[in-house]
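INFO  loader      accepted 1 record
INFO  loader      residues=172
INFO  predictor   begin
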Amino acid sequence: MSLLDEFVKKNIIDRADVELIEQEMSAGKSLDEVLLDRDIDGVSIFDIKKNYFSSIPAKSYTEDLVPAEVLKHIPEKSALHYQFVPLGVDVDDELEIGMVDPDDLAAKSAIEFIANNNGMGYKIFLISYDHFDFIMKHYSGVKGEVKEALGMLDGQDAELAAATADNDEAKK
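INFO  predictor   done
INFO  writer      dumping tokens
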């Protein structure tokens, strides 16, 4: 039974809408995005997905901020494209990754690639689209921190260059 069949079985969507939903998904939207656009409650979507993906642990939505050093493990473009985000690093130094769609094989391949490049193991968790969206909004804060740090480095480079020039002048 497919995930869409679960939504039909729970009377969240009509059988007649399945084909239209599949068309929207083939045009690039995730199932969650399509269902949310149809005003289906995010909590209901997540509850059905938790039952369907029962072998994958779920992380409930919280508004806890993911530290910037954790966000840096997964590039923002990859996170947005594949709809997965870093949630944390556990005591075994494994990256905890939240996925909106744990059936997405391309996303799993991307996770494997990213984890290998980071030299880390990983654990996958099911998360809601709302949780994913909340974490994605914090990537912009990471960009700001990086720009600020680069600005500081630029200032330090300018100071170093000025000090070096002053030192060179003093030697003459």
